[in-house]
Automatic annotation (TrEMBL):
Residues 253-344 bind DNA. Keywords: Developmental protein, DNA-binding, Nucleus, Transcription, Transcription regulation. CDD domains: FH_FOX (cd00059). PANTHER family: FORKHEAD BOX PROTEIN N3-LIKE PROTEIN-RELATED, FORKHEAD BOX PROTEIN N4. This is Fork-head domain-containing protein.
DNA sequence: CCGTGTTTACTGGCGA
DNA sequence: TCGCCAGTAAACACGG
């Protein structure tokens, strides 16, 4: 039974589906207990490629029936004593790769990675994870590309290796592929910084954790003879059972360039010193809480090279000058700022959303572990579906203990903004009678600029009410092209754009004298650098 | 010395 | 392949 689908990306750090997945795992565990399911190919959630729609689907479990289904559809094949599910992969937030199972570097031999198959580890397999999270062990194997080349981009998973795996939490920090010791050191710095931030800058904790990490790393290095094997893609990546904590402890780099961050700061405050810009940024983005000077160097670099930023008078106190945006007072800049502000607001809303979901997920996990012991009979799929739907649809009101103050202001659940955001977050179909697939963009995709057409959807929204979701195709550019045209004094006839009489901007009249200037492919990036001159 | 500001060089990603 | 862009690193100068 397909219960949902999920964009497959390491950028899923917003944890859109953590609730579903938690519920999924509960469901599977309880079902396995009640049915006494054997270990062959059941009891584990997966994400399965749907060839017809090019989407990844969550599958509740691979039972004998679903196994048979996949077998009949040639998505399962035998290789010796093992069966493999073709084109099956778990989202990187749930499964990570063991170093031994991937034999060559994708960037060098990517043609060999056109199929990735996941099967359970053999219990007696000498290949074992250094850290065994219970029995959840998977093996990732690579296969030669099949003869069938259709839909190569989506069917093969070679793009999976384009992920910046080193950004995934719990990834072994001893990865040294093509990394200088300097970079290695920097990564440690970042990890330290991230932990320390979320631990209220408790340097003792941070140091302790780092020491533990170091010890683990040393142990791994000693135990593992392949540690320096440059052919390994992602060594010792441990299955992560708790993606929510990952999102809690590793603030990801915000999807804004340094130029944008500086713009935000200067637009917000008018003019700031360099240190003021540092402060503005770090106050709002935990990622930049670090004391290291690398990002600050980049900020200064951007201030210097970007003519958009002007150095003003000397600051009254302290060293340096006051910086401002050169065209801040212009009307165009005002409009641009309105747009940028929307984008920034949306970012914080999504961050707040994520924080809530993380809290919810953790809360539920504790509750469910307790309830699971008490109610082993809780295996009814209807109950499960209801619970899953409820988990997905629920609007939680939990205190945010770890989020930044900026994000916290967006989680006032009584505010209209908040309710709007919740509607946005739920990512549910607008109609329970909807028969066709309806795709929604995920926060991660939006904010990281990912352009993969696989998105979150609940496919059994039986008990869910309809929500009004933002229907614009691009949440970060919510102003319609028509609106932009009108404000820009552009007219449109068929697929052509025209300059029109500036007095005719309400769109009610046909332009009396027009000349073609743009076609449909014209980039109406109204607020960007490509703004119409 | 340190924060600030400028400049150069390099790298990786991406699109043409 | 090339150019552009963003990010990063680093050298250097300046001034309090």
């Amino acid at each position: 039974m397909i219960i949902g689908e999920q964009r497959l990306s390491e950028n899923n750090y917003y944890g859109e589906t953590s609730n579903q997945l938690d519920g999924l795992k509960r469901k599977i565990n309880t079902e396995n207990e009640s049915r006494n399911v054997n270990n062959s190919y059941s009891g584990r959630p997966g994400i399965f490629k749907n060839f017809s729609s090019n989407k990844m689907h969550f599958v509740e479990s691979l039972t004998a029936e679903t196994y048979s289904t996949y077998q009949n559809s040639d998505q399962i094949h035998q290789d010796g004593d093992q069966s493999y599910i073709n084109l099956t992969v778990l989202t990187p937030t749930l499964i990570q790769y063991d170093k031994v199972t991937i034999g060559c570097r994708p960037e060098e031999e990517s043609e060999h990675f056109n199929q990735i198959n996941i099967t359970k580890f053999q219990e007696n397999n000498e290949i074992s994870l250094k850290s065994k999270p219970k029995d959840e062990k998977y093996e990732v194997k690579n296969y030669q590309q099949s003869d069938n080349l259709e839909d190569n981009e989506d069917k093969n998973l070679s793009w999976l290796f384009n992920f910046k795996l080193d950004e995934i939490a719990n990834l072994s920090p001893e990865i040294k592929r093509k990394r200088s010791s300097h970079q290695h050191h920097q990564n440690h710095q970042v990890e330290n910084h991230n932990h320390s931030y979320y631990q209220n800058n408790n340097s003792n904790n941070s140091t302790l954790q780092q020491n533990q990490n170091d010890e683990n790393n040393i142990q791994r290095t000693l135990k593992d003879p392949c540690i320096e094997d440059d052919l390994n893609v992602a060594e010792n990546i441990i299955i992560c059972n708790t993606p929510p904590t990952f999102t809690l402890h590793t603030p990801k780099k915000p999807p804004f360039t340094y130029t944008e961050l500086i713009e935000y700061a200067l637009e917000d405050k008018g003019e700031l010193t360099v240190s003021g810009i540092y402060q503005w940024i770090s106050d709002r983005f935990p990622y930049y809480k670090s004391n290291d000077d690398r990002w600050k160097n980049s900020v200064r670099h951007n201030l210097s090279i970007n003519p958009h930023f002007r150095k003003g008078n000397k600051a009254k106190a302290g060293a340096g000058h006051l910086w401002k945006i050169s065209s801040r007072e212009s009307e165009a800049n005002f409009l641009a700022w309105e747009h940028k502000k929307q984008r920034l607001d949306l970012f914080f809303k999504m961050e707040a959303a994520n924080q809530l979901k993380v809290q919810n997920s953790l809360h539920r996990k504790v509750d469910d572990e307790t309830n699971l012991n008490k109610h082993s009979e809780y295996v009814c799929s209807q109950n499960y579906d209801a619970e899953l739907n409820a988990a997905t649809a629920s609007i939680i009101k939990l205190p945010l203990e770890t989020c930044s103050p900026i994000i916290a202001k967006y989680v006032d659940t009584d505010s209209p903004v908040s309710s709007q955001y919740y509607q946005f977050q739920e990512i549910l179909p607008t109609s329970q009678h909807q028969q066709t697939d309806e795709l929604r963009k995920t926060a991660g995709e939006i904010l990281n600029g990912v352009r993969r057409n696989v998105e979150v959807q609940i496919m059994h929204p039986s008990d869910l009410q309809s929500y009004s979701i933002l229907n614009t195709e691009d949440y970060l550019n919510p102003i319609s092209k028509e609106e932009i045209m009108q404000e820009s004094g552009l007219g449109r006839r068929h697929d052509e754009f025209y300059l029109i009489d500036p007095t005719i901007v309400n769109g009610s009249e046909e332009p009396t004298e027009v000349f073609e200037i743009f076609h449909e492919d014209f980039n109406l990036n109204y607020f960007g650098n490509n703004m119409i001159a």
